[in-house]
Amino acid sequence: MVEKKTVLFVDDDEAILRSLGRGLLDESYNKLFTKSCKEALEILKREEVHVIVTDMLMPEMTGLELLRIVKKEYPNIIGMVLTGYELDTELQNAVEQGEIFKLIPKPLWKLGGKFERLVRRALDGSNLQNEHGRSGGRKLMECKVKLRE
Amino acid sequence: MRISQRLILGFLAIAMWVAVVGHISLYQLNQISDPLSNDIPESVKSINKTAYLDGLSQSIRYYHEVSTQSARNYAFTQDKRWKQHYKDIEPELDRVIKDASEKGGEKDRGFFSTIYKVNHTLMEMENKSIELVDKGQPEEAIKILESSKYWDQKKNFEQDIGDYVSRRGIKYDEALSSSTRAVNLATKQAQDLIKTSTRLILIFGVVAIILAIGAGLLISRSIYVPLFELKAAADEIGKGKIDTQIEITSNDEVGQLASSFKKMLNDLQKTTTSIDNLNLEITERKKAEESVRHAYEDLEKANQEMKEMQSQLVQSEKLSSIGQLAAGVAHEMNTPVGFVASNFETLEKYMIKIEKLFQMYSELIDKIETSDKAVLLDKVDAISKSRNEMKIDFILKDLSVLFNDSREGIDRVTSIVQNLRDFSRKDDPENFDIYNINDGIRATLVVVQNEIKYDADVEMELSEVPQILCSTGQINQVLLNILMNAAQAIKSQERDDKGKITIRTYATDDEVVCEISDDGPSIEPDKLAKIFDPFFTTKPVGKGTGLGLSISYDIIVNKHKGALLVDNSVGKGTKFTIKLPINKKETEKERMVENNENKNCIIRG
After folding, report:
1. Which DSSP state fits B533?
2. Alpha helix segments (H runs only) across B35-147
3. Class of domain B427-605
4. CB B368 within 8 A of CB B383
5. Domain residue extents for chain A
6. Closest Cα partner for B480 from B325, B312, B315?
7. pLDDT band at residue B605, thresholds of 50, 70 and 90?
8. ipTM of this model?
9. Which residues of chain B does A108 touch, with a Cβ-Cβ cutoff of 8 Å?
């Protein structure tokens, strides 16, 4: 039986976390929510997480900073960033360099079902990464290319 | 030529003429005087000479007669008186003969020297006879006197003299007649000359008069023509034509007068020119005054426009601040709108699920009477199963949370919109509103929250303060400006920990004070003096207008009669202090309004 995947959502605004939770109510994977980056790092120590979806602007650190820390310790975790500033060059560069799997523009409700699909694909990518180990990175890149297309 | 020279020359010409004429006349007179002065005197002289010699001859005859007779008488009478008489006459005779021999001509001198010798011989004999008489021998004396020698001599003497005298008489007549002839000739010549001279003098006189008149006319003409010209020029100038030209270049006194006149005219022209210039200057000054007045009006207009522009500038600075905030504000609004919208969609899904469950319950109720127990139990199982699958229990529990979340999100958006509208509305500077600075701070923080919250924590120590009368939008603009500056200053340090912005309010007897301090970099001392200057900014180009603090200063100090102070201790950040006066008269009014005031400022922590 396929192991149940886990997605961690990080946002300093709890109302957003709750609305995310409602929106993804029917998704089959596990959903964890936290409003603190520090707490998110604590959770990663306890739980196996496959995908992190984080807000960009937060008081403790930015979503990008969080993902960089995560990437260092858990290279297999796929990071996604929710942002209102899609054109931010730092974020674009981070996407180019593979630090971020995908930028997800806000507001989410405008995306319709796309957000859910994106999270599912990220989880699929996580599968590939896990299956192929170190070589999974290349496959992942190919997957990303496909995604971009 | 000068007039004096000309006059002198004219008179000199006339004088010369007269001199020539005179000279000619004199020459003529000389011609007359030649016979008069030479011929006539000559003849007169010869007459005189002849007459004189004649006289002398007569005297010689006489003295001879007397002296011989005296000597004879003495010899005969021996009377001493005759001797004396002889002695008196004898030298006279001698003298006269000498005289005659000297005065007479060549021939006369020969004659008289002979006479003299003869007389001398006679005198010797006579003197000898006298001596003999004196010796008392008169006979001897008479002998001598009666001697033939003596008589011969005496006769010769008398004969010679007689001849001479008769010859002299003829000569005298000759001289007289020649003299008369000469005089007659001279008189005739003189008469002729006088006639000629008279005619000449008449001619010369007429010529001289004509010359004099001509010269006079010429000279006077040479004087009065330029004088007349000068007079005409003077008349012209008198009529006001001061640019009249004087064409007199002569070298004389009139020329000098003309040149003096010209100089005077020149001076007059200059004076007139300077008067003209003065007039011009006056005109120009009037123009200048006019233009100054225009300029003043323009300036007033410009001032008015500038005031309008300033208010536009204040407005645009405000809009610029809002512009800078826009992205943050959009993000700030995007979040609640985002989750409210998301919740709304979820609510729809919830509704579908609840409706589905309701449908199942309805069907169950419909079947309760007609179906048997087993069928109904199956139905209930299905419902229960669906209820679990659709997570209806969670949904029912979550609904109130969803509504709360959504309401709170909508409130957040409303608050932002409300504050933004308050903030950006154009203020009426004449009508101030009743304002509580604490509310103002809270409202401003809502707007500026997104700019601050990731870089700094805001600590608020707000005391109860009285309401004041002021322009809400303007004071909020100042608060926003100072808060933005503080946030940007902290951000510029790129520090690891978060900065701190402290907002403190309190009231004194007559002022409401708001202190906003940050722990960012302090302002450099050399820039401290300039921070309220317009267009002074330390931010990169495009990041700040440089007007924020200058407009803030204008709002607090000029428009609200308050004070805006900056306290800068190096290394400890910056503190801005806003002091706004409390208008006591308005206190009652404030209280009345306070009770009815609707507070719009909802703060998100």
Report:
1. S
2. 40-77, 80-103, 106-135, 138-146
3. alpha beta
4. no
5. 6-148
6. B325
7. very low
8. 0.79
9. 338, 342
